[in-house]
Amino acid sequence: MSMKIQFLGAARQVTGSCHFLQAGGLRILVDCGLFQERSHRSRNWDPFPIDPASIDYLLLTHAHLDHCGRIPKLVREGLRCPILTTSPSQALVEIILEDAGEIQEEDARYKRKRHRKEGRTPPRPVEPLYTSKDVKAVLPLIRAVAYGEPVALNEEVSVIYREAGHILGSAMLEVRVIDNVASDPPVGRPRERTVVFSGDIGQWDQPIIHDPTLIEKADYVVMESTYGNRNHPDNAGVPEQLEKVINAAVEAGGNIVIPTFAVERAQDLLYHLGQLTREKRIPPLLIFLDSPMAVDVTEVFREHGSSMDEDAQAVIDSGGKLFKWPGVQLVRPTSESKAINRIKGSCIILAGSGMCTAGRIKHHLINNISRPQSTILFVGYQPPGTLGHEIVKGSKSVRIHGKSRQVRARIEQISGCSAHADQDDLLRWIAGFKSPIRRVFLVHGEEKAALELSQRIGDNHGYPVEVPEYQSSWTLD
User: Using CA atoms, how far apart are residues 477 and 473, in angstroms rounded to an integer?
Assistant: First the structure.
């Protein structure tokens, strides 16, 4: 029996990860994420290409929205199958999807209000992509699985979750399919074939989480290619860069404001700041994690300490605390967030969103971006079209909450915080396979990045490599 795979997202683009595998009599979906590029967001609203009620399993690699963000819509449209993921991902998915549901409802309310103000009557009523109620219907379907333990989906198909090193709970999937298991009489020798889905591959030697797994055998590989045509800058390490920026800001007498993503980035920064403080490389400062969502995510990290790497375990074993020490405050209420701006002297403020597009970071920017003493520190890529990009590219003034603000603060940006493997890491991962791969499919990358990585893999290993188009299908013999 042949297998078939269809690419329903992240095909010659980064977001919307979704792959449909038919194998061993099962219909399996691997991830179902939101399309986040402006040019493809309409796909989120399109009817799903296959009947959600016909899906037998949804295998989730990790909790980022571009991998799980369409699941509530599928459940509303009839998906009732088990959703398998790791225990940390199960906890993170609940936080992330509940936040996404609230945002979808808020966006719909805003559009309706704007249409009324403009006197417009849209051809169709403005409705959210999904609601908080739809999210609640997802949660009972999620089942936690352990790393490294085979999970039988039926007599012919099993899956093993492997550490991906991307964010807490992230996984690569080994889907194993055995033909002729139930044939009577037996037809030849049962044949096992393996399809590996890389999910998002992390960098080696990052704080808190384990390194990516090197898998030795696969017949087919579906591999991410986000940084397939470039490497991360070879600068000083993250702690050294933080140390330099923070000490300069303290000497200037200003605050350090860091736009921060709630998942992984906030926790990595707290880890580094804790190390720098314990080693007295920076002065003991008040540090505020001003993001209710990031605080919730940090609690998930605390509850899943066994999923952390040896360095994080060493801090815990020595009596240290990864995310909470004297001076660190995890901020939830709005009143506490506002009170930060009354503090005299230097402090460090981590707030969302990481691209300054929404959230409490905008209020902290208003209070600091025009102060020459303060520093706005970016620790992640700022895509064009975001407020973060406007600031990083050197704009003299930016609009925040409807008013023009002069940019007089120091603007700094450090590298090395990416949760994604770069080109060298991706090539290191694919080189870990010890036997020939029949075909590699490159997904989750812009076309240029995927095509360059395709060339490199072909040149280095001679494997056939495909960069599939959206909704294209392949038979896996």
Answer: 13
CATH of the domain at 71: 3.60.15.10
For residue range 49-60, list pLDDT tens digits in order: 999 999 999 999
Task: Tell me the pLDDT tens digit for each residue of 323-374.
Answer: 878 889 999 999 999 999 888 889 999 998 888 988 899 999 999 999 999 9
* Residue 72 sits in the same domain as residue 135: yes
Residue 166's beta-bridge partner residues? none
Task: Write the CB contacts of 444 (distance below 8 Å, at least 6 apart in sequence).
Answer: 10, 14, 17, 200, 224, 225, 226
| Domain containing residue 271: CATH number | 3.40.50.10890
The upper half-sphere exposure of residue 329, i.e. CA atoms within 13 Å in the direction of its Cβ, equals 16
CA distance linking residue 340 with residue 471, whole number of Å? 49
Print burial letters for 220-253: b (CB count within 10 Å at least 16), e (below 16).
bbbbbbbbbbeebeeeeebbebbbebbeebbebe
Identify the helix (H) or strand (E) that includes residue 376. Answer: strand 375-378
What is the span of the domain harbouring residue 120?
A: 3-230+419-476
Rounded CA separation 114/134 (Å): 25
> Mean pLDDT for the chain?
91
User: Do 54 and 157 meet the contact criterion of CB atoms below 8 Å apart?
Assistant: no
Domain count for the chain, please give it.
2
Give me Rg for the CA atoms of the chain. Answer: 23
Q: Cis bond leading into 353, ω under 30°?
A: yes
Strand 256-259 to strand 286-290: parallel, antiparallel, or no bridges (unpaired)?
unpaired
CB-CB contact of 6 with 36 (8 Å): no
Q: What is the pTM of this model?
A: 0.89
Whether residues 27 and 175 fall in one domain: yes
Secondary structure class of 151 (helix, strand, coil): strand
Specify whether the CB–CB gap between 55 and 30 falls below 8 A: no
Tens digit of each residue's pLDDT (9 = 90 or more) over 70-119: 999 999 999 999 999 999 999 999 999 998 898 888 878 877 887 787 77
**Contact, 216 vs 433, CB < 8 A?**
yes
Helix and strand tally (H, E) in the chain?
13, 22
Q: For residue 449, list its beta bridge partners.
A: none
Preceding peptide of 185 cis, ω within 30°:
yes
Residue 40 DSSP code: G
- Regarding whether 280 and 203 lie in a shared domain, the answer is no
